[in-house]
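Worked example
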Amino acid sequence: MEGSIIDVKGKKLYTEYNNLYKNKPTLIFLHDSLGSVQLWRDFPSKLGAETGCNILVYDRLGYGKSFPMPTHERDNNYMETEADILNDLLDALNIEEAILFGHSDGGTIALITAAKYPKKVKAVICEAGHIFVEQITVNGVAEALRAYRTTNLSERLQKYHGCKVETMVKAWTEIWLSNRFRNWNIEYLLKNIYAPLLFIQGENDEYGTLEQVEKTLSGVSGPAEKFIIPNVGHTPHKEVPEIVLKKSVEFIVSISR
């Protein structure tokens, strides 16, 4: 897919958009806290090919090939803000029927978007998303920050994010490690989700417990199912891509009947 920069109300976002199929939904991929378009690898194209859906992958502001964040400082509702930006991006591209596939922060953003903009979201695949703050998540972020400071993680991230790495890491770690974020919670939004939901999580996820899954499924108003994968951590689509691909295809086919 060819990439381009799209101006979304002053935010210049890098996108890769494959709009080949008329009258078909668009699969939209929402990356994690340190992710990017490139880091999805070939997973989006494979899922698009097997379901006959269009594909949109994009870097959020401050990530990948998108323009930098104006500041590393984030409000508690930063993921709610990202859902609003996604809605504006859908408007800019005239996408009216989206199937959201979000990982980690991206999974949370997918849930929020489905709650706030239900007319545009046909279904949600949430992989390792969060709806409230757990100590295991805080510990995981602290460990990632330690690795950033003591290993070559910074150099590896520069391959995908260039000079934006320092700001990106500070933006993620400072908000999640702050005392003011401990009470962040989006459970109140879940009742507004009517789109079919598939929640994928690794049983050994180092950033969240299965309580995230159970509370999400019990809180939404639409049909929902879980897919818990044994012996897998926080990134199932990378650790066991064929398993995640197969289940995602089955889910998308089932809601398209």
